[in-house]
Amino acid sequence: MRVVRRALLLCVPALCTLVSCGIPATGVVEAGGPAHGIVPMVRVYFLQNGSLVAVPRRPVGTVDAESAVKRLLEGPTDVERAKRLTTLLPPLTAAPTIAPVPVTSMPPASGLSGASAAEAPASASATVSVNARSGVVSIQLHTVREELTDLAMAQLICTAAEAQRATDAGTGTGTVTVKVTNALGRSVEGSGERCPEG
């Protein structure tokens, strides 16, 4: 009987120790404000000393190829230019390279106050369009008639491919094909597989 009583006396402290190591029953503890999520970013590719460099930027809207390309076409900021970051791409707000039509040859378009439609400045959506679906991005440069250099094309392809890979994450699509077409219909394709990481 003494052995059983002694065993019970040894078990009670061990059982109390096990029960007391759980989470204390204290209710909700207020400690600061609500948690904040991570700010979404896109990577755009500029040039530094003749090489591509990935630069993080906040997207225009959602994280997708269109938003990334628009941020790229804005060009480097003053701070980035001070770090010798450059671009070979035309600005997003470039006017279309169309010969102006005399005002007398056609009636004024509504809302242009006497200016012809050909003389109106191009809007952001009129200068570039980006269409993306799983694994494929098409970029149409509506106002660029000249052929871009290989590095300028690499800026576009790397930026669009990187953003599309982020958009496609979880769908199993690894390779992204980017097709860039200028205003004359000349196209260049690339996959962005050789783009430098951030």
Topology of this structure?
Layout: H1 2-20, E1 42-48, E2 51-57, H2 65-73, H3 78-82, E3 85-86, H4 124-127, E4 128-133, E5 136-141, H5 150-168, E6 177-181, E7 187-190
Parallel strand pairs: 5-6
Antiparallel strand pairs: 1-2, 1-3, 4-5, 6-7
How would you sum up this structure, described in words?
The chain is an alpha+beta fold and 198 residues long. The chain has a domain at 42-94 and 120-190. Helix content is 28%, strand content 19%. It has helices spanning 2-20, 65-73, 78-82, 124-127, 150-168, and strands at 42-48, 51-57, 85-86, 128-133, 136-141, 177-181, 187-190. The strands form two sheets. Strands 4-5-6-7 form a four-stranded mixed beta sheet. Strands 2-1-3 form a three-stranded antiparallel beta sheet. Helix 2 packs antiparallel against helix 5 (150-168). The protein starts with a helix and ends in an 8-residue tail after the last strand.
